[in-house]
Amino acid sequence: MNRRLIGVVVGLMLVAVALVRSPIAFSQMESTPTVYTYVSQFQVPRANWAAYAEDTEKSFVPVAEKLTADGTIISWSTFETVVHTSDGYTHGAAWSSTSISGLMKVLDEIRKGGPRPGQIAATKHEDLLMQSSMYHVGAGTPAYARVVCSMAKADKPGEFAATLKKLLVPTFEDQLKKGVATFYGVDEQYVNTGAPSLRCVVIDYPNAEGMDKWAAAINTTMSKWTPAERAEFTASSVLDSRRDFLLRVTHSGHK
C-alpha cells in the first residue's frame, strides 16, 4: 500500500476507539444501525507530546463531554499510537454519532477555540469520516485497540464481511462474552479518501492480557479450519495487503 493508503488505514482503525463506548449492544444475528465517526489525527513531535495532551484535555474533552450529555454524539475518545512508524500519526481524537450533522456540531464547537499550540506543532494532520454497520459492543472500559486492515476484493467487497461472519465471528462473540475484549467491528470509509475496498477488523481490549487471550483463541479456531475454509478466508482479501496497528485509549466517554 502507498503512504496515502496507509494513512487511511490508520484512520480506519481509530473508529473503534469511538464506537467502543457506545451503549448500544447487539448480537451478531441482529441488524445494527450505521454509526458515523469523525477521526482527527496528528503526527506530533515527541517533544510536544505533553503539550498536545494538555491541550486536548482543555479543549476537546469538555466539548465532547457536553455534546455527549445532550445526545448530539453517542461516544468519543482520544488516543495515542503504541507502535509507531516513521510517517504515521501519533495522537488524535474521534467521535461518533448516528447522523452526520451530529459529527459536524462537535467540529464546529472545537473550531470556535481555534487551533491549539499542540496541534500547531504537528508535522502532519488528517481527518477522516467513517462508517460502521458490523460491530458488537461488550462491557468494560477500553485500554487498547488492535486493528487488522486488509483490502477486500474490489469486485466482491461484501465477501470479506461474509467470510468473517462465517469463520471468525463465533469466536469473536465468545471472547466478548468472556470479557477478553470490549468491542469488535469492521470499519470502512464514508468519505472515500482512499481505496473504497479497504476494510479493518478492530478489537478493543480492557487490558494487555486480553490481547494475548484473544490471539490464542483465534489461533485455536484457525487451526481447526478445513483446507476449503482456509482457502475461502484467504480468497476474501488481496494477498499481502494486511497491515496491523496498536493504540492506547487515553480518554473516552459515551451517552
Q: Please state the overall shape, judged from the principal axes of the Cα atoms.
A: globular
Number of helices, where a helix is a run of at least 4 consecutive DSSP H or I residues:
8
How many E strands?
Answer: 8
Helix content: 25-40%
Order of helices and strands: HEHEEHHEEHHEEHHE
List low-confidence stretches.
Answer: 1-8, 10-29
| Major sheet size, sense and barrel closure | 8 strands, antiparallel, barrel
| Approximate strand percentage | 25-35%
Strand numbers in spatial order across the main sheet: 1-3-2-8-5-7-6-4
Give average pLDDT, whole number.
87
Helix-and-strand structural type: alpha+beta
What can you tell me about this protein's structure?
The chain has an eight-stranded antiparallel β-barrel, surrounded by five helices. A hairpin with an 8-residue loop joins strand 6 (183-189) and strand 7. The chain has eight helices and eight strands. The protein is α+β, with helices and mostly antiparallel strands.
Describe the secondary-structure layout:
Layout: H1 3-19, E1 35-43, H2 49-69, E2 75-81, E3 91-97, H3 100-112, H4 117-120, E4 124-137, E5 144-151, H5 158-167, H6 169-177, E6 183-189, E7 198-205, H7 208-223, H8 227-235, E8 243-254
Antiparallel strand pairs: 1-3, 1-4, 2-3, 2-8, 4-6, 5-7, 5-8, 6-7
Helix pairs in contact: 2-3
